[in-house]
Structures are given as structure tokens and as C-alpha cells.
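ok so i was messing around last nite and threw this chain in just to see what happens. nothing serious, just curious
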Amino acid sequence: MHTLSNKINISGLFILLSLSACMNDTPGDDAKDQRTELVRAIETAHHKTEYLSNATISFDIELNWGSGKALQANVLQRTDGTRIRVRKAAGSDILFDGADKWLTTSGQEDPNARFDLFTWHYFFSLPWKLSDPGTRWQPLPDRVLEGYDCRSGRLSFEPGTGDAPDDWYLVFSDKKDGLLRGAVYIVTYGGKDAEAAGKTPHAIIYSDFRPVEGIPIAHTWTFYGWDTDSLDKKEALGTAVIRNVHFAAEKPEDFAVPAGAQKI
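result:
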């Protein structure tokens, strides 16, 4: 993510959040047009076809949240997201094999295993997952984010999609180059109420784009929280740094269930 000193132009965001929470989730013709424009721009800018032509991608992530380090791990995944493996420096080996979720540890409990398995994978993969099965789109007005003039749209999900189908995202695409500049989102994982979560949205801002085999990938993510009662109260939450991004052919051991693993 970018540095915490970066300023986000969020004029009108309170109205945007309030309206989006009340929107009907069934897209009409205008929403389909918006989806085509917004999603196609992002997928083109991030070279979705070329990205998916690779079997796997891996990256290291270091997440600092609040005043300390919250996560240090390697993430390996199929580019289509159907297999994911997270190996934490603290010892946990977490796996999604396409059907089940598995965990081994080095003797420590890992209550965040399932959250970590899907969350960081999804934030990394967002530019290439916007037209996945189960996604729904609604048009929103153009907005300025981080000084970039952006298209915007509201992403929600059909019931039963993923681990947290009640989540929604406000997605921002740079009108000049199509890059995904950021998203406002809510977290309902773990049974949190969607209406309550919508009162304390978070945002992820993508920066430090670098080409990996010609594909632009954000190597810095910055997270913020907003008190939606006031546009002036922007709260820095954390920063993630992405390193050692590379594509590879899939090997049989990549997503093999580790010995001693238990389902989570």
C-alpha cells in the first residue's frame, strides 16, 4: 500500500456510501453498461487474459496493522483462484484445495487461519475477479480518489458466493489508464451483520504498480477506516507490502494437503 501520509480526496464519499447501502442488488440495463465499462477497463489495464494464461502466482506479504506486524507470509495460488496456499512465517500452513480448507500449525493455534486464507488472496486478485460467477454490479457516479479521476461501481454478490456473500465493494478505476486504484469495502466474515458493518467501512488503496511479466501489480496497499458520520475523520489502519511476485507452472506438491492437516 502507499504511505500513510498520502491524502485521499473523498468528497462526496459519505453520500456514496449511504446511497450504496440502500441500492437494490439487482442490476438493470444501466448497471450492465457500467459493468462493461468499469470492469472491462480494469481487466484490460491489468491484462487479465495474459494473467490467466499463467498457472500459478506467488508473492510474499508483510502486513503491519496498528502499531505492530500482523502477518508475514507467502501466498501461492492458481491464477483463477481455485487453489490457494498460505504459509506463515509463524509456522501455519493453510490450504484451500478447491473444496476443503486445511490447516497445520507449528504448535500454536491460528484463529485467523480461514480469514487469512481468503482475504489477502482476494485483495491481491481483485483486478482479475471482478467478473467471476456470482458478482453483481451497479453504476455509481465518477469520483476522485487519491487525486485520480475514477469510474466507480458497486460490487455485491449473489447468495452463497464465497465465505462472505454479504460483503460489498465500491470499486474505483482510473479513467486515464484503467488501473484499479482502490476499493471501499465492508467485512462481514465471521457472522458480522452487514448493516452494522456498513457503518464502519474500510478502504484499500493500491499503489506502487510494477510490471511482472508485463502485468501491472500493486506492491503497496494502504488500509483506512472511515467514521461515516464525518468526512474529516479518516483513520489509518495499516499497510501491506508485496514482494517477490512471480508466475510459475503448477507442481504436484503445490496444493497437496500437508501431513497432519485438519479441516477448518
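not much to say yet. Residues 1-31 have pLDDT under 50 and may be disordered.
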